[in-house]
Amino acid sequence: MSEENGVWIVKLVSIILFFFIAAISGTIPILMKKFRSNQKLLAFSSAFSGGLFLGVGLLHLLPEANIMIESAIKEDDEEAYPYAYLITIISFSLILFIEKVAAQNIHQHYYKDSVKVDENKQNLLNSKNKQDQEPNSESDENQTEKDQQIRQSINNQRHLAKQLSQSSSQVNVSDSCHINVSEKSNKWAPFILQVAVGIHAVFEGLSIGIQQEVSLCLGVAIAVACHKWAEGFTLGSSFRTAGVNKQIAIPMILVQSTLNPIGIVIGWILAQEGELVSGIFLSVSVGTFLYISTLEILVEEFNVSRYKFQKYCVYVAALMFVGSFWFIEKLLEIE
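Predicted structure:
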């Protein structure tokens, strides 16, 4: 089997496989109310995929992208500017801005709105308490109605505080009167997450589609596959936690499932446009891989105290696996 046919097979299998992985893993938490993910398996899978993304990006894709761009723009024997590394940094910084600056501002906007609503509620309660301290000039019936409204408002606050304490260990119930996340903010959270995850999915697919060697194409596909199912569970759980209707959540998961295949097809087309275009988009993919592996996967996983040593061993094993690609290629060339 020729190199070109092998690449075609890997890309076609990846298109089909990634769609079903994302669709199934994303819909399971939504459809199964009693679903409980295996946290240990998720942790090991994330650590392994983090090592794969980091190793593939730095050891294979970035050097290849640099060679492609240099061969396309280099005219003399003079040393060319490392455009591939620059594009990688720009890609990394752009994703950092989208996820940590732009998305954070959206979250803070809704957070401020919720705080204003809470302040209005608190002011209403304070005004009613002041009225209670004044001589009673109203009828007993009106006073009883006011008391019921106050009790209902307090019960609502307690119920919401209980929900927050169950959903996140980082939220202190005693501070719930000062910090309160509105339902509107919670409803938007999975959609903001999906935008970030969708950007990753397109560039992950792009990095597969643009490959022209079987070993690199397969290596990137394995890295994405290890990460994809955990990503699907996270997104599906986010929709369920936010209470998004199934008629909305499931179509959104299916839309998410198409982004990896779309990225592969785009990369497949761009791979025919020459080394310069391939090198540029490969550099963009490297920036995405570096962001995913460092700021998303490894930092978050190793901030969790459980299974730290085992996760580190899995991470090192992934790096060793990626590092062996070069030796495997050389052995295949000798044979």
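Summary: The two ends are 14 Å apart (CA to CA).
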